[in-house]
Amino acid sequence: MMAIRELKVCLLGDTGVGKSSIVCRFVQDHFDHNISPTIGASFMTKTVPCGNELHKFLIWDTAGQERFHSLAPMYYRGSAAAVIVYDITKQDSFHTLKKWVKELKEHGPENIVMAIAGNKCDLSDIREVTMKDAREYAESISAIVVETSAKNAINVEELFQGISKQIPPLNSHENGNIGTIKLAKQTSQTSRRCC
Ligand SMILES: Nc1nc2c(ncn2[C@@H]2O[C@H](COP(=O)(O)OP(=O)(O)OP(=O)(O)O)[C@@H](O)[C@H]2O)c(=O)[nH]1
Q1: Which of 24, 116, 118, 187 could bond 147 through an S-S bridge, CB–CB 3.0 to 4.6 Å?
Q2: Which ligand 1 atom sits closest to the C-alpha of 150?
Q3: Which pairing describes strands 180-184 and 190-191: parallel, antiparallel, or unpaired?
Q4: pTM of the predicted model, to two decimals?
Q5: Alpha helix ranges (H) inside the chain
Q6: CA distances (Å), 169 to each of 3, 53, 62, 76, 80, in order?
Q7: What is the position in ligand 1's atom list of the atom closest to the CA of 21?
Q8: Domains with residue ranges and CATH for the chain
Q9: What is the ipTM of this complex?
Q10: Model confidence over 121-159: pLDDT tens digits?
Q11: Helices (H) and strands (E) in the chain — how many of each?
Q12: Tally of CB atoms within 10 A around 22
């Protein structure tokens, strides 16, 4: 018997930074050059082992287009973690990320784990955001930070592993409102929905 913990995770960030592509790489190990912009939000799950627990990520991939901004609270409310994504080749997207962090701090769950993903690191020859700037900023807000490439499958697993490690274990006194607890056989299951 192994405890399965359901952890709501949302992805936030500018349109086109690669949120859906990161989720698609993580859940389906697939990359689509012609992926469409998300309308509203999309949902997928993936279960991964973490120590003697299983973490079932309930992943809400939000739409980055400004017209969907007002929907975001539905997805970050009750989230154990937020993955905030920017595109390393677009300084503007790093600015948008900071706005999301501010919103999360003001209106998000108190103990939300924040993970910053600098996506498209396969395009580092045209980067506009340095790793140093990203690290310093992440440190200032106590967030995890990693550069990813959904395209080349770089650091996507590591991103979610990093989140898993930041979630206090079940026997911790701090586990308050970060997911429900179920007992189940030791199976690793992945629910796949189209992205
Ligand atoms: N080179 C490169 N391109 C990527 C990468 N990740 C995503 N892309 C491309 O970037 C574009 C946008 O990707 P999406 O995953 O739709 O971006 P999104 O953040 O979900 O966008 P919205 O749904 O509008 O919020 C697509 O053309 C992807 O193929 C990456 O790691 N490297």
Answers
A1: 118
A2: 31
A3: unpaired
A4: 0.89
A5: 19-28, 72-76, 91-107, 131-140, 156-166
A6: 11, 8, 27, 21, 13
A7: 15
A8: 3-166 (3.40.50.300)
A9: 0.99
A10: 999 999 999 999 999 999 999 999 999 999 999 999 999
A11: 5, 8
A12: 27
CA atoms 193, 87, 78, 8: torsion sign: positive
- 3-class SS of residue 108: coil
Which residue shows structure tokens 């079940």? 170
List pLDDT tens digits, range 95-117.
Answer: 999 999 999 999 999 999 999 99
CA dist., res. 50 & res. 4, Å (int): 10
Distance 18 CA to ligand 1 centre (A): 3
DSSP string computed for 147-166: E-BTTTTBSHHHHHHHHHHH
Distance CA 190, CA 34 (A): 24
Nearest alpha carbon to residue 130 among 160, 86, 184, 191: 86
Neighbours of 149 (CB within 10 A): 22
Q: Which of 28, 33, 35 to mutate to test the pocket of ligand 1 (most atoms within 8 A of CB)?
A: 35
Residue nearest to atom 13 of ligand 1 (CA): 18
Q: What is the distance between the alpha carbons of residues 53 and 12, in angstroms, rounded to a whole number? A: 26
